Amino acid sequence: MTSRLIRGRLLSFKDVPRDIDDTSSYSYEEDGAVLTTDGVIIASGDYASVKQQAPAEAIAIDHRPHLIMPGFIDTHLHFPQMQVIGSYAAALLEWLNTYTFVEEQKFVDPVHAARIATAFFDELVRHGTTSAVAYCSVHKSSAEAFFTESHRRNFRMIAGKVMMDRNAPPALLDTPQSGYDDTKAIIEEWHGKGRQMVAITPRFAITSSPEQLDMAGALMREFPDLHMQTHLSENHAEIEFTKELYPQHHDYVAVYDHYGLLGPKSLFGHSIHLSDREADAMSASGSVAVFCPTSNLFLGSGLFDLKNLDERDDPVRIAIATDIGGGSSYSMLRTLDEGYKILQLQGQRMTPLESFYRITLGNARALSLEDRIGTIEPGREADMVVLNAGATPAMALRMETVTKLSEELFLLQTMGDDRAIVETYIAGEPAKSVL
Ligand code: GUN
Ligand code: ZN
What we know:
Elements: E1 3-13, E2 26-37, E3 40-46, H1 47-53, E4 59-70, E5 72-78, H2 92-103, H3 110-126, E6 129-135, H4 140-153, E7 156-160, E8 162-163, H5 176-190, E9 196-202, H6 210-222, E10 227-232, H7 236-245, H8 252-258, E11 266-270, H9 276-285, E12 288-291, H10 293-298, H11 306-310, E13 317-320, H12 332-345, H13 352-366, E14 384-387, H14 393-399, H15 405-415, E15 421-426, E16 429-430
Parallel strand pairs: 1-4, 5-6, 6-7, 7-9, 8-9, 9-10, 10-11, 11-12, 12-13
Antiparallel strand pairs: 1-2, 2-3, 4-14, 14-15, 15-16
Helix pairs in contact: 3-4, 4-5, 5-6, 12-15, 13-15, 14-15
The structure holds guanine and zinc ion (ZN).
């Protein structure tokens, strides 16, 4: 049994912050501590009372004056695209065809996949991301490499082998049957093994035949507790091509709806150019729209209309993510910063409290995992990040004038990156300082 008594300033959200100073939305301890045993949070709160509950052999770690928060959650990224980041293209489809579909072919090689998996989890740790929802390549072996490394490091992860059977190079295509069989084999081997979870992953309507989307729907009915992830309404040319391929359906969401892919465990990357009807179908089904700020800017895809989705009578559930390698940073802090700017361009506001809610409890709720991750409270998995808002000389200088928690958070969001991550705990184990 390994116990740790981790001391520092403690911040954990309880609910959506309603305004810039909504103190009821979070709990904060100036001199706080978290007690973990074997990867689980046993106690949290003020240092003196948590210390009393700690066994004598607990390892004491003092992070004062830094801020301890729940680990960041990245709800959409592509593990085989680490070497695609920063590829020069006019827009999504050119970027996919010129770089991404070429790069992903390398993952037929298990040695390459294993090497990239190691680099991938190192990068998440470096950036304070403790859980993620990842796309692997079409190859079953890429999911093997991913889960093998994730399990070895004891991450809470959701991932799936991409299903794609058309409109891509032949070396990247499966078939409706092999996509189904391989996904099922991966589910049987990995889903529920330690902290590993499998997502059914049809890449998007353009690269899946109707038969394949039908198979994805069949998998969802067969395994109703699994997540499903795909891409939706990211770019105008993509939307037009989808309409050509599926002329019988009146819009993009209707295509996925027809094959039974909507629902509370369904994650739709991008969801930028949705009609009111599509947003209504998303909210009625409990589907999640995943905002990917750095990717949307990098590929010039469009401005995610967060408030339109969030402030409807029946709101659409929203998550936020990096979308590596369309996205340009692994950092959820950089992601918040770019997201903030996208909202600014549309006259929309996102308070610093709302930002940090979104990358912790907000994303955990979007994944229906709030009973396991996203907060620091007894019973939750001990995934945490330790933040230093004065990590660089420029940040330290700005920090001199900060007087409030919300200002500190906004500084972290605006100027922070992996240098602001002092430590990352994965299931109670320090992971960054040992990289
Ligand atoms: N749509 C289908 N595949 C992808 C992908 O890999 N990245 C992004 N950004 N959009 C996609
Ligand atoms: Zn994506």
